[in-house]
């Protein structure tokens, strides 16, 4: 009889362990993690014409305009976080010295008093002073031929560049300022049932928004088409993948062949993670779950933020009362900032739950 009790206890323990490990980390509230409803306030700035991306450094929000704005208007706006007032506008549209063709990627850089903007169209990175009111950049870096296919770049603490590259087997590639390859990290995983996908098509399938933070230790990519967050630890040179909420892989068709091939997703294919912010404590991923058709019809894009640890543990789910298309976070102020998707877009400000920051 004693042996039977022992066997039953072991069996019960195994069932309990199995049930615990099988819990979907994105299955709120069944995963036991907290979720919160956040009510945001919208602030409108008439100087901001077509806000596209948002980031932050020190006491400022950095707003990047779409390249479709009039050519005589500035591409970048610095807004004071505490007063939510415009401090300065920067970025002269053009291809001359100190000018930019577009403001695609913000990089906090390595100095407290400057930041970088990557102009993808002209393959140039431009450094700006954070505290003056000049619209021109103070330093430039033009991508050499060896970095021609690098389309998303961030500085590292070693004064090299960490890049997404369009046609390479590596998920991330590191270059120095001379354009020499320093290292390649991670390799693309083949998509089941589609062995014909080359490096370029696999890159497209895994396309997303790459972000780093001031400390430059973690580089995080949130994928648009598949529900995957990839956390790269620059110190250990390792990746942590977090898949979800959807586990299934999105269908995609290959159009053309050879060097002319491209990957095509249907208009009713729902997007996954649209943006990401890497803060001192957590990673904040902005999740859409809507197709391009839905977004165009309703004007609503993303209203969910998943909070993760740097190790990839899902911490919380935040449900926003306003639709946004980009986000940045200041944990010291306890704020989430986003660009609204309504007819006259502005900046939405949400309070991070105090209980979340106590953890």
Q: How many strands, what sense, and barrel or not for the largest sheet? A: 8 strands, mixed
Question: What is the tally of helical segments?
Answer: 4
Radius of gyration: 22 Å
Percent helix, as a range, is 10-25%
**β-strand number:** 28
Low-confidence stretches: 5-20
Task: Look at the structure and give the mean pLDDT.
Answer: 93
Using the 3D structure, state the CATH architecture of the domain at 47-141.
Beta Barrel
CATH class of the domain at 47-141: Mainly Beta
Quickly give the structural class. Answer: mainly beta
% residues in beta strands: 35-45%
> What separation lies between the terminal Cα atoms?
46 Å
- Looking at the structure, the CATH topology of the domain at 47-141 is Thrombin, subunit H
Spatial shape: globular
Organism: Algoriphagus aquatilis
Pfam families: TolB_like
Protein name: BF3164 family lipoprotein
Keywords: Lipoprotein
Brief descriptors of the model:
single chain; 359 residues; mainly beta; lipoprotein; Thrombin, subunit H
What's this entry about, in short?
The chain is 11% helix and 42% strand. Strands 1, 2, 23, 24, 25, 26, 27 and 28 form an eight-stranded mixed sheet that branches. It is mainly beta.
